[in-house]
């Protein structure tokens, strides 16, 4: 078989929209100060690590995991204060949950909607599942443009509406009133994505009782367990029972289950770390605001959105990389993010390293 005929065979079989995609890119980061992926920088103490490893020693790796991961769910319910009338479904990261939701509604004439710019996986997963995606621009303050959203809801009747609260990559919260108006106007399901809820005082648990068409999605990634890949969906059992049919068997592996149970039993540790990060966020924002070459947005998450006003963002990104600091370049993606970089909030020491590098490179 020649290369040309192989190419031909692939392009005949693989859907054109898949051919046009790029696989999710993660830049190399060995040895870098990693401020690009909203990870928690804090390590566990040696004693905590040892206690975790002792627990893992009891894991039976030759056995399939407990299929419902009930132990993890019970502890999540307790730590997050989730009332007993709601059900939980776990995913291999909340990315997997987005995919399950999309698979559940996929079909002809179905669309998924999200404000833009927001988390890119909403659109990517819609594409994976062959669902139309409707992006509704945020206003100039990165707030929801309610009338545009309501207009599109009426015109397109989206099956799913994703609202990241606070939003990635802009870091802001939407008002509860706007979320309520969207839920009321929608025939479809509204997913309030609270990936960053640990970094804000706001949460939407109380909305679950008011709407039949609203669920919450959360993750353990941002509080300090990104390596576990554990996301959760919270909602009425009637919805979750349907979605659970699409979850692959044993999607939460034995190591993740044991580690998550351990971590949730020591959740105070994560509360302390997120409190420290929230403090560090205020100091970082204040320091960034002192740099006249940057526009800086407020943030309710563990990252800060900035715009480079003088040096092109791509150049600044490269220069920071050269100085050993990796941040996320958003410039070149959504037009509203022209010139923008997203910077993870880290420890005071690492934030200072970032500030020094920025000062030298701006
Ligand atoms: N939702 C939002 C808004 C996010 O920013 C992210 C991660 N970047 C996710 C969901 C996915 O998180 P995970 O798959 O790690 O749970």
TrEMBL record:
Subunit structure: Homodimer.
Catalysed transformations (reactions): L-histidinol phosphate + 2-oxoglutarate = 3-(imidazol-4-yl)-2-oxopropyl phosphate + L-glutamate
InterPro entries referenced in this protein's UniProt entry, alphabetically: Aminotransferase_I/II_large, HisP_aminotrans, PyrdxlP-dep_Trfase, PyrdxlP-dep_Trfase_major, PyrdxlP-dep_Trfase_small
Enzyme class, UniProt record, top EC level: transferase
UniProt xrefs under Pfam families: Aminotran_1_2 (PF00155)
Family: Belongs to the class-II pyridoxal-phosphate-dependent aminotransferase family. Histidinol-phosphate aminotransferase subfamily.
Protein keywords: Amino-acid biosynthesis, Aminotransferase, Histidine biosynthesis, Pyridoxal phosphate, Transferase
One GO-annotated biological process of the protein: L-histidine biosynthetic process
NCBIfam families: hisC
EC number: 2.6.1.9
Protein name: Histidinol-phosphate aminotransferase
Cofactor(s) the protein needs: pyridoxal 5'-phosphate
N6-(pyridoxal phosphate)lysine: residues carrying this PTM: 222
Sequence ranges assigned to domain Aminotransferase class I/classII large in this UniProt record: 32-358
GO MF annotations in UniProt: histidinol-phosphate transaminase activity; pyridoxal phosphate binding
Pathway(s) per entry: Amino-acid biosynthesis; L-histidine biosynthesis; L-histidine from 5-phospho-alpha-D-ribose 1-diphosphate: step 7/9
Domain of life where this protein originates: Bacteria
The keyword Amino-acid biosynthesis is assigned to this record: yes
